[in-house]
């Protein structure tokens, strides 16, 4: 926890090294002070086929899934910092966005909790 999943158009992989992008999101999330380094997980899903802006526009959308308990201001800051970092890496990409969703503590479980 947290999980940051990047959906993107496949050509994104040719603009920047995917590992560099994943590490940039990881470090940006860590630098907010909201998460322990060992808890952050980042992965990327490139899409070969998509319809964006009525055509073939490149895009990046980040789904941020975090444990509940952060304030709206903290979540807004996290969103802005990640979009800012991705915009620095991809100034020519027209769509860069993020949404943050809370996991409920009461219903979250992983194997270490069993």
Explain this structure to me?
There is one protein chain. By secondary structure, the chain is an alpha/beta fold. About 30% of the residues lie in helices and about 30% in strands. The chain has 3 helices and 4 strands; from the N terminus they run βααββαβ. Strands 2-1-3-4 form a 4-stranded mixed beta sheet, with helices on one face. α3 links the parallel β3 and β4. α2 runs antiparallel to α3. The radius of gyration is 15 Å and the shape is globular. The protein starts with a strand and ends in an 11-residue tail after the last strand. The mean pLDDT is about 95.
Short description:
This protein is an alpha/beta fold.
Structural class category: alpha/beta
Largest sheet report: 4 strands, mixed
Number of E-state strands = 4
Q: How far do the termini sit from each other?
A: 16 Å
Mean pLDDT rating: 96
Inertia-based shape? globular
Contiguous low-pLDDT stretches (5 residues minimum) are none
Instruction: Count helical runs.
Output: 3
Strand order of the largest sheet: 2-1-3-4
């Amino acid at each position: 926890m947290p999980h940051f999943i990047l959906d993107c158009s496949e050509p994104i992989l040719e603009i920047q090294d995917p590992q560099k992008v994943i590490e940039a999101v990881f470090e940006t999330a860590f630098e907010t002070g909201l998460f322990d380094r060992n808890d952050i997980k980042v992965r990327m899903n490139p899409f070969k086929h998509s319809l964006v802006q009525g055509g073939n526009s490149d895009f990046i959308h980040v789904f941020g899934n975090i444990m509940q308990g952060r304030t709206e201001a903290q979540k807004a800051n996290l969103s802005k910092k990640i979009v800012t970092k991705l915009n620095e890496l991809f100034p020519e990409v027209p769509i860069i966005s993020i949404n943050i969703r809370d996991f409920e503590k009461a219903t979250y479980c992983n194997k270490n909790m069993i």
